[in-house]
Amino acid sequence: MAIELETLNLTQPSGGVPNNVLPLVLYHHVSHEPHLAEYFEQLFAKNGWPPRWRYPVFTYTHFHSNTHEVLGVYAGNAKIQFGGEDGPIVDISRGDAVLIPAGVGHKQIAASEDFMCVGAYPVNHGPDKFVDKPGQLEKVQGNIAKVDKPKTDPILGEQGGIIKVW
Question: 2, 4, 106, 108 - which has most CB atoms within 10 Å?
Fold first, then answer.
């Protein structure tokens, strides 16, 4: 089965969540390997996005102002809200990945008991973490403006994904 790409434009701030002019990218059906956590970790690392953690998504709205983030779902499924409290809720499941631009809010709304992701960031980037709080937009928008576009897509390398849509 081929990877299906979907983009979401979350360009407007929502409360204390700045969001980003770059679209969020959903990759459906990346793989159905039996050892999917290791597969995502190797794929991300090969494409310059070293894996940093295995965990579900936090159940409160948060975002990173200093880096983009990719999640590879290796178990279960979840409903994730992107863009802040009024943003869309997206279903993601085992084998899917999502690339979240710096500043785009995300939180887990519901999930299966076994839901787990691999998380990664571009090489030499570590995330800060902000929650949806008034009064911080100017500061975090300044941080986001300094975040470079990655040289490679975490899933498709130099061949597509953000290389084409960003």
Answer: 106
